[in-house]
Design a protein that fits this description.
The chain folds into 3 domains: 231 residues, ANL, N-terminal domain (Rossmann fold, 3-Layer(aba) Sandwich); 67 residues, Luciferase, domain 3 (Roll), CATH 2.30.38; 103 residues, ANL, C-terminal domain (GMP Synthetase, Chain A, domain 3, 2-Layer Sandwich), CATH 3.30.300.30. With 539 residues, it is of the alpha/beta class. The N and C termini lie far apart (66 Å). 31% of the residues lie in helices and 27% in strands. Helix 2 packs across helix 6 and helix 7 crosses helix 9. Bound molecules: adenosine monophosphate. GO terms for molecular function: ATP binding; ligase activity.
Amino acid sequence: MMNIPLLVSSMLERAERYFPKKTVISRTSSGIVTHTYKEVGERTRRLSSALEKIGVKKGERVGTLAWNHHRHLEAYFAIPGIGAVLHTINIRLSPAHIVYIINHAEDKVLLFDEDLLPLLEKVKDQLKSVEAYVLMTDKEELPESSLEPLFHYEKLISEGDPSFEFKKDLGENDPVGMCYTSATTGNPKGVVYSHRGVVLHSMALGLADNAGLSESDIAMPVVPMFHVNAWGLPFASVWFGTTLVMPGPYFTPKILAELIDSEKVTMTAGVPTIWLGLLNELEHGNYDTSSLTRILCGGSAAPKGLIRAFESKYKIPFIHAYGMTETTPLVVLSRLKSYQNDLPEEEKLEIRSKQGSLVPLVEMKIVGANGEVANDGKEMGELLLRGNWIADEYYKDERTNEAFRDGWLYTGDVVTIDEEGVVKIVDRTKDLIKSGGEWISSVDIENALMAHDAVFEAAVIAVQHERWQERPVACVVLKDAAKEHTTKEELYEFLKPQFAKWWLPDDIIFMDEIPKTSVGKFLKRALRDQLKEHLSQVK
Ligand code: AMP
């Protein structure tokens, strides 16, 4: 058979040629704009040529700090189109982490939305590799800025070459993009995606039993484009000629509901917090959501009540899926098998609320204390993965050795598997708390607390939260001498300047002792149980 490299640029070329009239509907800070794939293709080619003119070369990284909109989509293809690497940066990270990852990735150019301008101005002197900034804005003129040189995205595009030829002298294993993911402690870790991985993963999104994405869909990725490439939906949608609806900056549940109604969105994807918000909005407003044929939900466990509400009340099928930054991300997805359709509703819900079955082309192993676990839905083990869109290292990072061993990715997720091969996540070995789809490092908060003079020791654990799925709660043992006079408020004041507001623990609980393992590590599972009791008593 022929051996033709799988390149991301061929996806956009397909959209230009076979779906020139299909559209990308984008909400920006000043309204809704629509472009056809023909126009998106032309604008992307112009951007590729402009980036080359600024001096970006093959293999170099171009960072984006942006929401989900058409310009970000153009960057998705223009950057790889010249053989450079699309580095999507999580705008919700702390400034220190943002500086770290820009320097670590050695981004040469940054494309960014206007709301990120103050942040970039503040940290610009710490950015070691950045040679140019490009502002993605609807406004005609550039604002006054200390960033230098600063280009206007639309002006660059207007001066670019509409018939620029995307680079074809690339290997399919060459990097196409990168994304940093939070670590238990310390700086985020970079994952590099290859052209091959992204193309094959996009194909998987189109499979009927996965996301079933197709030309006839109107897809709205709510999951951010800086979070595992919005789960790969922008790439796959362009490839299949799917209409895209981009929800833009600072969207609210109301805006999402309006977009679903007005644009007749058929599929959408995001974390449970988004769907809890939408559910609340649907209950209060008057929206037509009948166009929706499915909601894809992942990133955190989908509560049963959420699945039930969408399916029974709004008749919108709700698909639970699991993945991670290291896995591009789709690896496990929950669907009923054809012979399970007649099961009682509660039983079906039970199956659907698990994370699901492995998608084709990915392999897994679940390893417990005594080797691979039984398929009994009870024995727990760590989930190990391998496959064509699973990373095999962290970018220039020693922590590679912890997570990637013997040809497998050790996910740090503890799971069970039942006799039908359905996986359920039961715990996490990583000391991280996932709040509204974003990570909080419990270890970082513990270390900060333990740096306070009055604190003897501190452990931070995740407690379940209706809206945010998980929230941090700090358990603190005070030094004897400080017990009398130290208050929660004092500790909060101490933490506030060190962390983003959403990182602050929901509660600080004083204790006499923190349970520990035989080797002196915090026994967080025991602490969680202890706290459950405490919280129920408080109620
Ligand atoms: P990220 O790399 O930020 O996408 O986060 C990946 C991690 O999120 C996984 O390792 C899991 O701990 C968690 N996760 C993702 N999807 C789910 C899900 N459906 N249910 C429970 N946890 C999930």
